[in-house]
Amino acid sequence: MTTARVNLLPHRAERRKRAKQHFFVVSGGTALVGVLIVGLMHSYYAERISMQEGRNAFLKSEIGKLDKEIAEINKLRDEIQALLARKQIIETLQADRAQTVHLLDELVKQMPEGVFLKSVKQTGQRVQLLGYAQSNARVSTLMRNIESSKWLSSPELIEVKAAPLDKRKVSEFTMFMSLKREAVPPSTPAAPAKPAPAAAKKG
After folding, report:
1. How crowded is residue 154: how many other Cβ atoms within 10 Å of its Cβ?
2. Which sequence spans correspond to the domains of the chain?
3. Which H helix or E strand runs over 43?
4. Domain covering 111-179, topology
């Protein structure tokens, strides 16, 4: 009996060749799909990054505009504060000028007989008086007059001493007092109530 021999080497080589080709095709396809996926992801994220950069640029531009507006507002606020401070200074100077007039006028009104002023010095709301009086009682009268004045207040006697003046002995005094910013209007006495009319008697 004769046994037939079949050479399988070419068949195996062909199968290995087809397997290699299939492997290369699958590998190439997989690599191509991977490259496509990576490319798509890169494009997607690049677009997202570009959009975010555009938003950031817009926000920076708006923030710059707001910074300029805030700077202008601060500048206007500083100018308003400067104008208000200047206005306050002018009002204070006007009030002080009026106060000086009231001070001199009140000193003339409240100065009792026998009292002579040597100097008057004003520092803010405080006024220093240096003068002579015929007696200590005249100095006390001056202090009472200052207390009752509507423009002057808080007399404070610092020193009183005997001193010669024109060959006479007088009292030399140093006194401080305060100047009021606003005059207190004198109180108006209330009008007496009218008696109620008597009821008519019935006849």
Report:
1. 13
2. 111-179
3. helix 9-110
4. Gyrase A; domain 2 (3.30.1360)
Measured in degrees and rounded to the nearest 5, phi and psi for residue 82 equal -65, -40
pLDDT tens-place string over residues 5-42: 656 667 777 788 888 888 888 888 888 888 889 888 88
The 115-123 sheet, strands edge to edge: 115-123, 126-133, 168-179, 152-165
Round to whole Å and give the CA distance between 161 and 171: 5
Task: Answer for the pair 150, 186: CB distance below 8 angstroms, yes or no.
Answer: yes
Q: What is the C-alpha separation between 163 and 132, in angstroms, rounded?
A: 8
Let me know: does 172 contact 119? Beta carbons within 8 Å: no
Instruction: List, as own/partner pairs, every contact residues 90-99 make where C-beta atoms lie below 8 angstroms and the sequence separation is at least 24, other chains included.
Output: 95/181, 99/151, 99/179, 99/181
Q: Are 176 and 152 in contact (CB under 8 A)?
A: no
